[in-house]
Give the backbone structure.
Amino acid sequence: MNTLSLPRVGSMVLTIDSRIELMSGHTMPLLGFGVYQNYTTRASVLEALQAGYRHVDSAQAYRNETAVGEAVRDSGIDRSELFITTKCISKNHGYESTLKGVEESLAKFGFEYIDLFLIHDPFSGTERRLATYRALQDARSAGKIRSVGVSNYGIKHLEEIANAKYDMPAVNQIELHPFCQQRPIVDYCREHSIVVQAYCPIIRGKMDNPIIQTIAQNHGRDAAQVLLRWSLQKGFVPLPKSATPQRIRSNAQVYDFELEPEEMVQLDGLDRGAEGCISWNPVDAP
């Protein structure tokens, strides 16, 4: 296993076992498996674990924490080798409700701890965001969570945490792909040692751009593999999702080729800013 430090991959050879060190002191696998809108979660997670993934990204709102927990137990893989994430959405924000939600997630997973717990979105406003964050920090102190992070947070929301004198989040999970690179947020995260996770890394299958297709052809790869490799070489932690066994496995086969510097520049040049997003992307929420 090799463990990376922020902010960049550098010359280290990446493998499916590569991890990145979080400011919490724990390490996180560089490639995650997303289960949003996955209606065969147990089978899909088992397939992913068999393919070598060791990182699963769930959420309370996905309503599949129980299935993820079942897959973990059925896999026969030691819990300590796996990294499991969940999230609390804004309608459940608040100090007491968040603590209650942590207990509910632990029960659904059937785990003694959760590796990473994220605030799912910033829609609840400053006061409830900070109360939620404080609750997660307290749950971490109690040993129920190993790392605390956020999702869909813009710089304004991250600054709230800094101004409140709380520990900064270990992770910010945002929409990230060549069309939506969110560079100011990424730069802020890197400056503050916050690891950036990338959701929608394969653009929900909208990969027909000629530049992406040409690079894929040059490497004898499919477009999704090129996009995931771009994400890894940028130092992000991509979270591809699929319910198709063949696709689950091919998305993990991104360690035996490398994009050339000029190809990275070409993909970087596809950025459309906020217009390039394809999801809710609420980083500008008040």
